[in-house]
Amino acid sequence: MSKLTLALVAHDHKKPELLIWAKQHLNVLEQCRLVATGTTGGLVADETGLEVQRFKSGPLGGDQQIGALIADNKLDALFFFWDPLNAAPHDPDVKALLRLCSVWNVPVACTPATADLIITSPLFLSPDYKPVKPSF
């Protein structure tokens, strides 16, 4: 069975929440291949000891690099703790990333509560579960 590939992304004000969440779910995350935007990936690796492939910072193209994984059917879930109260200069990239998850039926969590529900689902690590992918 190949490992699930998960993307971890967090806006600046949400990085502490993502780090707390990642530490709470180390036992599952260590069974997955992790990718992340630049700063977030470095923090997750430093704080948890997990191996994380780091892309560019979100505003510098990291969101789009993760979007390419989605479009190429190489991402199994996105955990994106975004900050709805602070506008970011790369908001169009964020919207595009979330849109791609909907287009390609990729699970996405934007809050710790949703992330908890996804990662603790009995289907999450099940080799028998295959989400339906659209055919265009």
Automatic annotation (TrEMBL):
Q: What Pfam family is a match, any one?
A: MGS
Q: Which residues form the MGS-like domain?
A: 1-136
Q: Which domain of life is it from?
A: Bacteria
Q: What is its EC number?
A: 4.2.3.3
User: What is annotated as the active site?
Assistant: 63 (proton donor/acceptor)
Which terms under GO biological process does the entry name?
methylglyoxal biosynthetic process
Q: Which GO terms describe its cellular component?
A: cytosol
| Alphabetic keyword roster | Lyase
Per its record, the protein catalyses: dihydroxyacetone phosphate = methylglyoxal + phosphate
Q: Name one GO molecular function term.
A: methylglyoxal synthase activity
Residues binding substrate, per UniProt: 11, 15, 37-40, 57-58, 90
Q: InterPro entries, alphabetically? A: Methylgl_synth, Methylglyoxal_synth_AS, MGS-like_dom, MGS-like_dom_sf
Q: What does this protein do?
A: Catalyzes the formation of methylglyoxal from dihydroxyacetone phosphate.
Family the entry assigns:
Belongs to the methylglyoxal synthase family.
Q: What is this protein called?
A: Methylglyoxal synthase
Organism annotation: Alteromonas hispanica
Question: Could you read off the lineage of the organism from its UniProt record?
Answer: Bacteria, Pseudomonadati, Pseudomonadota, Gammaproteobacteria, Alteromonadales
Gene from which this protein is expressed:
mgsA
